[in-house]
């Protein structure tokens, strides 16, 4: 894996936006096939989304030939709820870019048959040609999408139960009450993310430092599901100085040296 370290979350978010834009342009230059993008919610991608919106408005990039699949959605929360991931995505990205509505995929957390909804989502990804780039964040417990500790690294899209820790962390969006956070969600699996041709994981702030260090230096384990990135042929972590703070000094130097060497090529 590659680790890109920036001074702060804003710089890291900008790096990721420009990287995504460069990948969309690169594919458009060689084929008419759409670019298939996996997307997260949360506080982490906000700078990236703001920069992508700016680039679309400035005519620097277009999402007209982009198909997107979101990582997850709360189960049983009305779509129009301000904290649904549908609401989040339209407010922070889709309302401001030129991605056609029919290209946007978000799991229906209110589906009568969750297993059928999740299986159809996996099929839709396959029919789109697989995901070119999956962007993700991580939880303080190392979760990727809502793949909480002890989710199989082979997991696919399914209904999951959130840990108490995650409900407490997310309660900041639900009036501070963990019980108001839905108990379940539908989420792509670890393997769904790892099947993407590229995976870019964002981690900012000291609260993510332990999970990030264990994902980078610890064993690949279902205890920290983002550690599956160790086996991905094209995995990139984009973090800030605070989030990388718990790795060994030599690991930090290594990542900085690799980036500097590649910039000189
Ligand atoms: P955050 O959430 O971006 O709000 O920190 C990330 C996550 O839980 O995956």
Strand residue content: 15-25%
Number of helices: 8
| Low-pLDDT segments, ≥5 res | none
Q: Termini, distance in Å?
A: 19 Å
**C-alpha Rg (nearest Å):** 18 Å
**Overall mean pLDDT:** 98
Taking the sheet with the most strands, its summary is: 7 strands, parallel
The dominant shape is: globular
Hetero groups: 2-phosphoglycolic acid
Oligomer: single chain
Helix-and-strand structural type: alpha/beta
The run of helices and strands is EHEHEEHEHEEHEHEHEH
Which strands sit side by side, in order, in the main sheet? 1-10-9-6-2-3-5
Helix content: 25-40%
Total strand segments: 10
Walkthrough of the structure:
This protein has 265 residues and is α/β, with parallel strands linked by helices. The chain is built from eight helices and ten strands. The protein has helices at residues 9-30, 46-57, 85-92, 114-127, 164-170, 190-194, 209-217, 249-264; strands spanning 2-6, 35-39, 66-70, 72-74, 104-105, 133-136, 158-161, 184-187, 198-203, 235-240. It has a seven-stranded parallel sheet. Helix 1 (9-30) packs across helix 2 (46-57). The longest helix has 22 residues, at 9-30. It starts with a strand and ends with a helix. The site of 2-phosphoglycolic acid has 7 residues, from loops.
């Amino acid at each position: 894996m590659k680790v890109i370290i920036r001074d702060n979350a804003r710089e890291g978010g900008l790096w990721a936006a420009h990287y995504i834009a460069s990948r969309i342009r690169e594919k458009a230059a060689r084929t008419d096939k759409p670019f298939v993008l996996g997307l997260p919610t949360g506080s982490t991608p906000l700078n990236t989304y703001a920069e992508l919106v700016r680039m679309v408005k400035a005519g620097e990039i277009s999402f007209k030939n982009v198909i997107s699949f979101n990582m997850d959605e709360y189960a049983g929360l009305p779509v129009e709820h301000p904290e649904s991931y549908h609401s989040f995505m339209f407010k922070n990205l889709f309302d401001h870019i030129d991605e056609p509505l029919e290209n946007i995929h978000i799991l229906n957390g209110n589906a009568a048959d969750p297993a059928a909804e999740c299986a159809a989502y996996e099929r839709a990804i396959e029919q789109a040609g697989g995901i070119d780039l999956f962007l993700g964040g991580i939880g303080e417990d190392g979760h990727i999408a809502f793949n909480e500790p002890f989710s199989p690294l082979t997991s696919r899209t399914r209904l999951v139960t959130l840990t108490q820790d995650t409900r407490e962390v997310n309660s900041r969006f639900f009036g501070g009450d963990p019980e108001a956070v839905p108990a379940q969600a539908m989420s792509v699996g670890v393997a769904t993310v790892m099947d993407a041709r590229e995976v870019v994981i964002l981690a900012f702030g000291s609260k993510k430092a332990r999970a990030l260090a264990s994902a980078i230096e610890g064993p690949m384990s279902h205890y920290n599901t983002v550690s599956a990135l160790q086996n991905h042929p094209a995995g990139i972590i984009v973090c800030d100085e605070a989030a990388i703070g718990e790795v060994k000094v030599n690991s930090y130097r290594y990542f900085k040296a690799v980036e500097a060497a590649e910039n000189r090529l």
